[in-house]
């Protein structure tokens, strides 16, 4: 195993030297950090951890999921051949991929449902109601004031209509606690605020849950024929109509079911999604953004984490290990310059957004090396 790791490490080194046009005598750890190549041992650890949670993407009737029995059916006889039926001694003897995945299953709540009818061709919302939903995105070629003006004109037109529900959604995360909040406006009705909090989820999940709550509130309002959703995460809203397998299907499944009921009530019912980035500081979204950051809930433990958060936390842990070993390692070179960023913090290794050293130092790769 050590021999194969040495071969892979040598391959990485050659690639880093080729990218940076550096000398062959350059220190290995230093040039890898500059060119944002994570060391091969950490990369393999990341792939191993991700492979352990990849089994949760399989449908619930898959034979491997049946062996894992991570979501047992109360109306079905328990399977005597599941991993959970093994004793501790048997699990220690049968160490392996499936055992590790089952151990991790205890802490992850299910979020995939690829075989649900809502995602089946012929039953999908885009197949039956493609003309009932639309997206209004920010035109990046136009100035920000132009989109703010469009939002103001839209609100002015619907302000006196009791058949249009106007909802603004937002989410924020602080100390791993996510706040999902929505404001529902309907003419001649009082403002309805919905606030939920959860721990160990990603920002996309929090934003999508805020949209889910707002749509639920709007659909139960009488005589509402049109719903307008304002969000700063339009990518989360687009996930609703994405029929491919993704870790947000538990939310999109509930939203699609509610929208299908809403559209079937009247052939004129429709929904619109408007993008409103936070930097625009539009008055309605500014209010809800302020509300989302004003709550300080106390989470209850223990609790499960989402699949997407587990994937993100595993990756973050590997990066933190890389940073710690890099700072303590002598292989980065005795003359490696510890540069500071714009906030006067020491630059640390990362493998996203072009790499931290090249962003700050600029110029050419070879000059930076």
Walk me through this protein's architecture.
The chain is of the alpha/beta class. The protein has two domains: 1-109 and 304-369, no CATH class; 117-292, Nucleotidyltransferase, domain 5, CATH 3.30.420.10. Helices cover 44% and strands 12% of the residues. It contains 15 helices and six strands. It has helices spanning 2-20, 28-34, 40-53, 63-68, 88-93, 97-105, 125-128, 144-158, 203-219, 234-238, 249-265, 283-292, 307-328, 356-361, 365-368; strands at 133-136, 164-174, 177-186, 192-199, 226-231, 270-275. It has a six-stranded mixed β-sheet with strand order 1-6-5-2-3-4, sandwiched between helices. It starts with a helix and ends with a helix.
Primary descriptors:
single chain, 369 residues, Nucleotidyltransferase, domain 5, 15 helices, 12% strand, globular
């Amino acid at each position: 195993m050590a021999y194969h790791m040495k071969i892979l490490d040598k391959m990485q080194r050659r690639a880093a030297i080729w990218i940076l046009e550096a000398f062959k005598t350059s220190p290995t750890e230093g040039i890898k950090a500059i060119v944002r190549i994570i060391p091969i041992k950490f990369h393999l650890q990341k792939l191993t951890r991700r492979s352990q949670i990849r089994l949760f993407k399989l449908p619930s009737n898959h034979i491997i999921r049946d062996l894992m029995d991570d979501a047992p059916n109360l109306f079905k006889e328990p399977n005597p051949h599941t991993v959970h039926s093994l004793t501790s001694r048997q699990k220690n003897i049968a160490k392996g991929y499936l055992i590790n995945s089952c151990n991790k299953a205890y802490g992850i709540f299910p979020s995939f449902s690829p075989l649900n009818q809502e995602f089946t061709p012929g039953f999908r919302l885009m197949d039956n109601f493609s003309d009932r939903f639309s997206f209004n995105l920010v035109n990046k070629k136009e100035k920000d004031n132009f989109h703010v003006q469009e939002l103001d004109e839209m609100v002015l037109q619907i302000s006196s209509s009791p058949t249009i529900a106007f909802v603004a959604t937002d989410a924020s995360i602080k100390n791993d606690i996510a706040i999902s909040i929505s404001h529902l406006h309907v003419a001649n009705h009082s403002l309805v605020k919905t606030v939920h909090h959860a721990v160990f989820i990603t920002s996309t999940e929090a934003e999508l849950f805020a949209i889910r709550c707002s749509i639920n509130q709007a659909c139960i309002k009488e005589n509402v024929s049109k719903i307008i959703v304002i969000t700063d995460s339009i990518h989360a809203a687009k996930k609703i109509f994405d029929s491919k397998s993704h870790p947000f299907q538990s939310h999109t499944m509930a939203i699609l079911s509610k929208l299908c009921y809403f559209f079937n009530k009247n052939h004129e019912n429709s929904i619109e999604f408007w993008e409103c980035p936070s930097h625009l500081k539009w008055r309605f979204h500014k209010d809800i953004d302020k509300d989302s950051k004003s709550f300080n809930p106390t989470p209850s433990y223990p609790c499960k984490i989402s699949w997407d958060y587990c994937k993100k936390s595993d990756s973050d842990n590997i990066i933190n290990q890389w940073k710690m070993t890099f700072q303590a390692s002598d292989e980065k070179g005795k003359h490696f310059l510890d540069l500071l960023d714009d906030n006067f913090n020491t630059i640390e290794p990362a493998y996203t957004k072009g790499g931290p050293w090249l962003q700050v130092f600029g110029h050419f790769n070879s000059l930076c090396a």
